[in-house]
Structure formats: C-alpha cells, structure tokens
Amino acid sequence: MNTTGVLDIGVQALLVAGKLAAPVLITALVVGFAISLLQSITQIQEPTLAFVPKAIAVAIALVVCGNWMISTMISFTTTMFDRIPSLLGGG
C-alpha cells in the first residue's frame, strides 16, 4: 500500500462522514437558529425551550434520512472491502 492509496481512503472516508453528518447537523443548526431568534424576540431564556425542539427535529431528520445514511455507509464499506486485494498488492 502506498501513500496515495492511504490518502485516497482518508479523503473518501471524510467525504462520506461529511455527507452522513450533514442532514443532522444542518437540521440542528436551522432549528437552533430559529429557536434562538424566537428567544431573543420574546426574551424567554428557558434552556429546555432550545433543547427539546432541536432534539425532536434531529430525531425526525434521522428517521427521514436514516435509510439513505445506512445505504451510503454500506456502499462505502463494500467498496473498501472490494479494494482490499488491490491495496495489499494482490490484484
């Protein structure tokens, strides 16, 4: 295995991790921004008001995008297992 192969696997792994984390992180960011805007307008500083809607939105995002996330991870893992012989220099 050479340096190029290791870097290629690392880049692919980071891209897949970014794609898998994006729906959850973007959902939490948008809901958190909306709740903080609402809190600043109404001047209600209740911590649970920020946490509960964000947790519910993230759970919904996981339910909606979960199948796609699992399919993407399985595809990446299958590709990595298929590349093992070429990475070890056997094919």
TrEMBL record:
Subcellular localization: Cell membrane; Bacterial flagellum basal body
TM helices/strands, residue ranges: 20-38, 50-70
InterPro entries: Bac_export_3, FliQ
Membrane topology according to the record: Multi-pass membrane protein
Keyword Cell inner membrane applies: no
One Pfam family, short name: Bac_export_3
Protein task: Role in flagellar biosynthesis.
Family: Belongs to the FliQ/MopD/SpaQ family.
Name of the protein this chain belongs to: Flagellar biosynthetic protein FliQ
Source species: Frondihabitans sucicola
Organismal lineage: Bacteria, Bacillati, Actinomycetota, Actinomycetes, Micrococcales
